[in-house]
Amino acid sequence: MRIVFCGTPQFAVPSLRALLDAGHEIPLVVSQPDRPSGRGMQVASTPVKQLALERGIQVTQPEKIKNNPQFRTSLEQIAPDAIVVVAYGRIIPQWMIDLPRFGNINGHASLLPKYRGAAPIQWAVAMGETVTGVTSMRIDAGLDTGDMLLKGEISILPEDTAETLLPRLAQLTGKILVETLQGLEGGSVHPVKQDDSQATLAPILKKEDGQMDFQRTATDLWNRLRGFQPWPGAFTSYRGKKLTVTSAQPSEQTNVLAPGTLSIEMGRLLISCGQHTALELLELQPEGKKRMTARDFLNGYRPQSGEVLGQ
Fold first, then answer.
1. Which residues pair with 194 in a beta bridge?
2. Is the N-terminal amide bond of 232 cis, ω within 30° of 0?
3. What string of DSSP letters covers 178-219?
4. CA nearest 92: which of 109, 113, 71, 112?
């Protein structure tokens, strides 16, 4: 097929590579404008742009796409069979949706209709899912509400975080998109409407999502810590300063202390949580300090059983 590809971050790179390797013609890649990043705030090309330039593909980076006559004209002249969108970061306007014969096809990193929105990978982990995946869908005017085309599943392992899951889902997205285009062209893939009654949302993450609420169960807090990596993480306060928890695990023992109360048992640092559960803190980062093990924290800060976090 003749395809226009829209994508920006590293997550979208395997999809562009898979489509190229499958032999599709991609005369144009659309990516967000280059922006300053990193400590030095140097302007850097987007990961998708970097791959496109390596492959000799023309790249355009419009600031806006809805009301952009020049951009619209260039797409109309290309007359793509499909526009493939992966983590582009812009709302696709109706004129783009209507342009190709096979529509605008999105690779969304969840098993729709669950986890519609900007952070499906993070929320799937944070909500304790053990299976997630990728759905290819036809973009419509709603938020990830378009007709589904193909799905692929992947396990969320107990040791997974959003960071470790992301590259596996990125690879799967490329595979599913290649199979979707092949099926659309061959007539074996047909759109299926989403059941809106089964929909859940995965909104963009906010800093306050990382605030640890010890009224939640230990398992809930552990899942959120895993899901909200690398940002906003999981944090609370200790002795009036921010304390980030970078690694933890639910404890098997019950805990009758008030939520948020510390207990030190045989060199282990436990925090009481909701429903009489306890979370063992394994690695922490006090404000202004480097990450440290629970043992180093115990030796350095001498916390006492009965102290309360989050006050």
1. none
2. yes
3. HHHHHHHHHT----B---GGG--B-PPP-GGGGB--TTS-HH
4. 71
- CA dist 13 and 170 (Å) reads 8
Contact 279, 221 (CB under 8 A): yes
Sequence letter at residue 16? L
Closest CA to 174 of 82, 47, 84, 54: 84
Residue 144 φ then ψ, to 5°: 55, 40
Q: How far apart are the first and last CA of the chain?
A: 59
Amino acid at 109: A
Which of the residue ranges 16-20, 23-27, 38-42, 79-83 would you say has the lowest mean pLDDT? 38-42
Local confidence band at 38 (pLDDT 50, 70, 90 cut-offs): confident
pLDDT digits (tens, 9 = 90+) for 54-89: 999 999 999 999 999 999 999 999 999 999 999 999
User: Using CA atoms, how far apart are residues 136 and 193, in angstroms rounded to an integer?
Assistant: 12
DSSP assignment of 56-109, as one string?
Answer: T-EEE--S--TT-HHHHHHHHHH--SEEEEES--SPPPHHHHHSSTT-EEEEES
CA distance linking residue 117 with residue 204, whole number of Å: 7
* pTM for this model (two decimals): 0.95
pLDDT reading at 262 higher than 80: yes
C-alpha Rg value of the chain to the nearest Å: 23
Please state, for a pLDDT cut of 70, what percent of the chain lies above it: 100
